[in-house]
Write a structure and sequence with these properties.
162 residues; 0% strand
Length: 162
Amino acid sequence: MKNPVLRKALYLVLLSLIWAGCASSPPRQNDPDELPTASQAPEQTDSSSTEPKEPITAESSLLLNADDSTKLEDYSKAIVLLERAIRLSPRDPNLWIRLSESYLKKEEFELAEQYARKAIVLSRQNKETQRRAWLQLANVFEKTGNTKEAEQLRKTYRYRTS
């Protein structure tokens, strides 16, 4: 292109197309596995409660769906949902404990142990959460046949709360 006016016009057209593309939002896709947003969540009709209701966040929605999947014994789906929640809050030891529980129910003992140990490391600041993580590890040990180790952990952490 040797004509400078034509080149400038082409640049302006390309620039305006790029700008128009950036200004618009992407089209909404209907994904059957997509989680409901806060506006799509079912409303609670119990108005007698005087407690303030917690806002629905992405993490809380994932956890509610993981609970539902666990109740239906769909541990694979619960694991996927918990892993998504962990991507949002990777330093929350409670999520790692729950992930370990799901893997234990699915009888994937190596991963259950790995995630229980991860929860122990992350819970150093909270003794009660750390106790729960150790007891989860005891559950893993018991399922894998290491009952002595499980018994020892339960003896050590069962009633400690301080």
